[in-house]
Amino acid sequence: MPKVEFKLPETFESFGEARKSGFLKMKALKEKGAGVVGVFCVYTPLEVFLAAGLVPVSLCSTSDETIPEAEKTLPRNLCPLIKASYGFAVADKCPYMYFSDLVVGETTCDGKKKMYELLGQIKDVHVLNLPQTQSGQRSLPFLISELKALKDKVETAFGVTIAEADLTRAIKEKNAEKRLIKEFYELSQMDPPPMTGLQQLQVLFGSQFKFDLPEKLADLRQTIDDLKEARAKGERPVAKGAKRLVMTGCPTGGATEKVIKAIEESGAVIVAYENCTGARQYDREVREDGDPWEALAEYYLGVGCSVMTPNPNRLELLGRLCREFKADGVVEMVLQACHTYAIETQTIRSFLSDKGLPFLTLETDYSAGDVGQLKTRAAAFIETLG
Amino acid sequence: MGHQNTLCIGLDCGSSFCKGALGLNGEIVGLASRPTGWDVAGSAALVKAELLKGYDPKESLVRVVATGYGRELIKADKIVTEITCHAKGAELLAPQTRLVLDIGGQDYKAIATLNGQVISFQMNDKCAAGSGRFLEVILKRLEVDLSQLDEFLAAGQAITLNSACVVFAETEIIGLLASGVSRADILGGVVASLAQKIASQAARLDPTGPAALTGGLAQNLGVAKALGQALGLTVRPLLKGPYAGALGAALIALDID
Ligand code: SF4
Ligand code: SF4
To answer: Are A317 and A280 in contact (CB under 8 A)?
Structure first.
């Protein structure tokens, strides 16, 4: 990225620090008697926990710190996300894992499913069964019944009851947050975008660790206003003409920031994240009318993750983001040993090639060993964009 | 192309060698190379000095483009990846090339090109199988010099090696030597396995020929032949192939204003 003097609005920092400073906030919440639910994946219906007055937290596991610990038990050639998740639990190194009274895992990929069995020996784990397909008539009723089973589990584990009105309220709150985050990242539709992809990621990733909703919403609003103001004052953190790329694939953040850095240090800019760290989580809202359980199930069934077969919603979202953010190309990050994404790469490649959009796929893990290689691949790809 | 009297220098510092090319008035007028060693910036500076011997840099503009593994450590006007540079360099050395196979010390790359422009590329992962390093280790173990490789390849049959991993292949070779297999046959097997590994990577590009060989093994007829067989394409060995990256970088330097 060509060096441009740019002062980050201060609210950005609060997101960058959110994961760390959240530890203390979480501790305070626990001391006040709050119940905490640890979650892994975008399929987990956070609304259910919010409706019960519980605090959900992402057990994001994006560092390689505890992988050696995990590899004592798990196979080495397994997705780093799974190894890290498990590693943090056994090594007792993640405060969020430590504070979680209940961990909810969903049957996305095979590696995770089997890992939960082992995790269940250390923590109270509830497994949310997902259908494997969005098509046909049977998936929706199945997911509704699974959501109700989750409700029962939460009610007994925490001694609460979840009324429909509570759920509807939680849905509305979550929707408000989604709208605001979407408004935030859509600022990068501007040319040049008012922030780098790394800065955008900082907010997307950090917002998972702000537990006080009104405060989170206020911070997001402030960040949006600050960005607009900085722009109006002529701040240009991204050089004009920088190639605009959309990220897709496995979740990014933490250790995999190295991929974003390799790309942006080579002169391009990430304008949007199609993956779970970004739009896949915030693009759509849950229907606010009718039966809230059905509305939730409809929404979550629509998540465009490669664990679904087929997975048309990923293509729809990716295509739309490329249009709306005027992408010059797409970069996919696939975590090592993630079969569903690695195979779906082929579908993405032909989908994008039909649209004439250049595509690069990068396979990586949480180690720093491939930084040089990533840089060469990313830079060479960006050079081909002209 | 380029400017009158601009000295255009391409420096390509890989894991083993630092190569340089000098262009003047649209012509390549000099090549130089030396081992990279531990000091990339220092070796690059020495290669540059060697290229400029006999020229007065004060009287002309000097433009430097750096590429290769060590590119970010070199003082240059522009930094370009070796993938783009090899594509350009190969087109200069062998016009109408559609696939460039660059075997480097640490890695290998297959680059689909058109008129010297990169269309798409594939690179090996962290593993050294298929890289120049693999062959280097084996040559050393067999006490064969790279310059003798073609002779050995012509004399032997390619046996089948079971492992493509450097460490395991070395062990396997110790066993083969113990059971009396000739060095020529072993080297045939090693080169065939290297070619297989590179070809399977290149196959993802749906390559059309002709292909050209660049990097440290570019002059080697036997390697080109093995790659040709593995790919089902004509693979041209290139006498100046080791300089393809530096030449491509010098060509890019010609276009800097
Ligand atoms: S990529 Fe799929 S499995 Fe992973 S967090 Fe997202 S929805 Fe869950
Ligand atoms: S990245 Fe892939 S393998 Fe890893 S947890 Fe997600 S779906 Fe499973």
So the answer is: yes
